[in-house]
Amino acid sequence: MSTSAQIGVTGLAVMGRNLARNFARNGYTVALHNRTASRTHALVEEFGGEGDFIAAETAKEFVAALERPRRLVIMVKAGEPTDAVIQEFAPLLEPGDMIIDGGNAHFADTRRREHDLREKGIHFVGAGISGGEEGALHGPSIMPGGPVESYDSLGPMLEKISAKAADGTPCVTHVGPDGAGHFVKMVHNGIEYADMQLIGEAYQLLRDVAGYSPAQIADIFRTWNTGRLDSYLIEITAEVLSHVDAATGKPFVDVVQDQAEQKGTGRWTVQIALDLGVPVSGIAEAVFARSLSGHTELRESSRGLAGPKAEPMDESDAAAFADQVEQALYASKIVSYTQGFHEIAAGSAEYDWNVDLGAVSAIWRGGCIIRAAFLDRIRAAYDARADLPSLLSDETFAQEIGAAQDDWRAVLVAAVHQGVPTPGFAAALAYYDALRAERLPAALTQGQRDFFGAHTYRRTDREGSFHTMWGGDRAEVAG
Predict the structure, then answer these.
(1) Identified catalytic residue from 192, 201, 285, 326
(2) Catalytic hit among 46, 60, 61, 185
(3) Which of 7, 149, 225, 406 is 20 to 30 A from 76, comparing alpha carbons?
(4) Is 192 a catalytic residue?
(5) pLDDT confidence bin for 73, thresholds 50/70/90
(6) Could you confirm whether 185 is annotated as catalytic?
C-alpha cells in the first residue's frame, strides 16, 4: 500500500464513499476522512480490496497523507457545512493545493469561496457531479469549474473516473472559471425537473385519456426508448411503471403518495433565470407542479370543483393518441433543453465564463440523469454554429418540432377537454408560439405601465423613449 495519496475525499456518506471507491478502482491511492472516524474505518474494512486507501482520523493526518499539489474533495451538505469544512482544512494547505467541492452548492457560494481561497493561493474547484450514487461509483458526468490551471492536474483523474459516452469520450470538461461548473450543474437539474414533469404528464394522459394500465404504459415507454426519446429517464420510467408492489399486488405507482419532493436546485434554476431575465417557463412549471403536489389540504378541499372527468378511449383511438403524445413529449422536451441552454448562455455572458455549449451537451451524454441520445445532435448543432441563438434555430430541430405541430396541439386540446392538467406541455407550446409570434401583447403592457407609472415606451417608427401625457388632451413627449 502506498504511503501517500493522489487524492483525498472527506465526507463519506453515500456519494462521497462511492466517489472514493471509484478513484481507488481506477488505480489511485485515496485518502479518506470523515467527521465520524468509524465511517472511515468501515469503508476501508468493507471495500479495502477494491484499491488503496489511507484512513485518516484527523484533518492534519488527512492533509499529510496527500501528495503535492494536494487534491482534497469535499462531499458534504451544501451551505454552512461546506464552509465549515473549508475553514477546517484551508489553514493546513499550501499555495497550489486545491479543494474540490463535489456537492450541489449554489454557484454564488462557489464564486465567493473561489475568490477568498484564490487570495491564499489555494485553487477552489466547484465540480457539479451528476449520476447519483451509482454514477459516483461507476462513472458520473462531471462539470468542474474554477481555475483552468487546476484542470491540468485534476482533469486527467476526473476523466478517468467519469462516465464515457458511446464514442468513448469522457463525460467531463473544464466548464469555466469560479462558479461555472456549479451553475451548469444547477441548470442540468432544472432541465431534469422539466423532463420528469413532461414524462409524468405523458403518463397521466396515457392512463386517464387513453385508458392504458401502468404495465401497458411501461411497454409504450420501452418502445419510445428505442427511438428518438432514447434516454435514461424514459428507461427508468418503464421500470417504475412495470413494478408491482409486493405487499398489495397493485401497481407500484398506485401505492405511492402523489407528492413529489425536491432538494432545491430546480428552484435555484428558476430564481436565477428571473435574475437574468431568461424565460424558463417549462422548468418553472415543473417546480410549481411539485410544490402543488405537496399542498394536500388545498388539493383535498378543491376536489369537488366543477370540471370534466377523463373518459378512456377505445382501443384504436388510444393507439393513435399514444403516437400523438410521443410527438408532444418530444417537442416539449426540445423546448425544455432550449430554455436550459439559453440560461447557461445568459449566465456565461453575465459572469464572463465563456461556456462552450457544445462541450456541455457532450458531457451530458453519459453518466448524468438527463443523458439522452439526442444530446449528440445538440452537440452537433452547437459545434456547427457556436453562436446559435436557440436550439429552435437549428434546421433539424426546427423541422422536427414543425412536424409535431398538429399532434402537439391536439394533445393539449384533449387534455383541456378532459380536464387533465398538463402545465409542462402547455408552457412549452406557449413559449414556442410566443417566439414565432409577429407581435406580442407586451406593447399593451408597456402602454399600461406608461399610463399608471410614466415608465415610458419605445416606438416602432423612430428612435428614443417616449411618454404620453394621459388625460383629456393627450400629448406625447420624449422620455
Answers:
(1) 192
(2) 185
(3) 149
(4) yes
(5) very high
(6) yes
